[in-house]
Amino acid sequence: MSIQSSPPTQSNINFKQKNTFVQTLKSDTVVRALSLVFVLTVWEIYGRSVNPILFTYPTAVARAFVELISNGELFKYGAQSIQVLIYGMFAGCVVGIPMGVLTARYRVFDKATDMYVNALYATPMVALVPLLVLWFGFGVQAKVIVIFLFTLFPLLINTYQGVKNVDTKLLEVSRSFCSSERQLWFDVILPSALPYILAGVRLSLGRGLVGMVIADFYTSISGLGYMVVVYANTFQTAKLFVPIVTLMILGIFGMEFTKWLERKLAPWNDIRKED
Amino acid sequence: MSIAQGEYPVVEIRGATKTFNDGQVITFQDLNLTIEKNKIICIVGPSGCGKTTLLRCINGLAKLSKGEILFQGCKVSEPDPRMAMVFQQFGLFPWKTVKDNIAYPLKLRQVNRYEIESAVKKNIETVGLCGFEDSYPYQLSGGMQQRVGLARALATEPTLMLMDEPFAAVDAQTREVLQGELLNLIQQKERTMVFITHSIDEAIILGDKVAVMSKRPSNILELLDVEFEKPRDMKVVKGLPRFNELRVHIWDLLMSQKNIEEAQEIEHTK
Ligand SMILES: Nc1ncnc2c1ncn2[C@@H]1O[C@H](COP(=O)(O)OP(=O)(O)OP(=O)(O)O)[C@@H](O)[C@H]1O
Ligand SMILES: [Mg+2]
Hints:
heterodimer, A: mainly alpha, MetI-like fold, 11 helices, B: alpha/beta, Rossmann fold, six-stranded mixed sheet, four-stranded antiparallel sheet, 10 helices, globular, binds adenosine-5'-triphosphate, binds magnesium ion
């Protein structure tokens, strides 16, 4: 950063940022594209020399993609997966965020629940999946509950941290201007917890994807995870890569979406992190 | 209340004592101070002597352990909308624009929208922030942020302004500019103000009175009258022989309170 002797006007701040931003974006894109081409080429050459039961190569995966898209299989299973992911994450948000707020605000509530929260958060959730399948069957319900459990804790804990970490100086500012307790919540505590909550959403999305695939493995009648199991068991390696790549793309889009959401809803936080 | 306005001083502090940690830390003890209407009182004192704590007690943010503080004849027990504080670290909400930060106390008071708009506009002009209405605090320099803090306090048209080292977090040049602007502000319209600072010059330039506090358990060592006539000009005042006399006097008073061991101890606990 250059040193500015006079306070910059708004327009030249924007101009400067845009300019350097575009330049770095361009050179970054070139590096990324070259790297991608290199990796795919190596994979193609090496992949063709290996037994197709064990490994595959990009063009074969692309062909499998076309096939599974045109026969509708990918969309069918993909939609099933996304549906349960959305239900599960929604449930996670609806329970996790208010619970985080309550536990951070009321000591009684905190002490009454913290041992369960800590214990469950420490437990690898995977261990609970067979039990949940036993209880809730092989349908959508069981999967939603699995994803709910995977996503609940990052949301709960981040919200809790966000509410706890509210700047006491700002609380004092509000009290000094005669804010009521209720106004304090809406004016100070929730806005300052928002970046934490959004980070919680980002974390829980990653965990939710893991939960989704595991739930598919155990229930094995629907979803992208089911595709993985079927094609692995039948040694159709190229097709096996289709749900894997789809999951990867889902993950990337999910991350980018939540990051965008963070920038959109809490721009002050983003800028602070930069400097 | 209506009788109270004219007859009582704005603030009367009587026998005020504030302790922390079950009486282990005594900040100020048996402190008495009266703040008259339209007077600026500057408070200087060693670090940690309880200046901020005193201001918080006047504002109603903290409760005294003993004694009482009267605001226009009524005992202070909670924050009063007729007082406005300007904070050392600006105390701006990072998620609110300049405009919304200034409007914040008025919104709490449910002032109607048009009045808020005109009050915000007027005070943005007063502190010279036109064109930055929609900026966020992180887009502003420290000096500009404190102007927002000042505008926010002014917009509430307070009976009493409380300033806790408002210019301590800005660079030396900006500080002088802000001092000059504040001086103009208090000379355009009479105001009652408690102003805490570590700068002796600042205290003498701005204050009608300067209260020098002792180290803990602290009290007012001396309450000096600064007789320079108003309107004052910063440069002129600084050139007066009396300015230097006051300066040396306050400096000596503060130095008599320096306790090197204690200062080091404070450094360690930080
Ligand atoms: N909430 C608190 N709990 C315990 N001790 C406190 C609290 N607030 C202040 N103190 C103590 O009271 C003393 C006075 O603090 P205060 O912040 O009022 O000093 P100050 O005069 O404003 O200092 P400075 O010039 O450094 O701002 C300090 O020793 C501080 O540690
Ligand atoms: Mg202080």
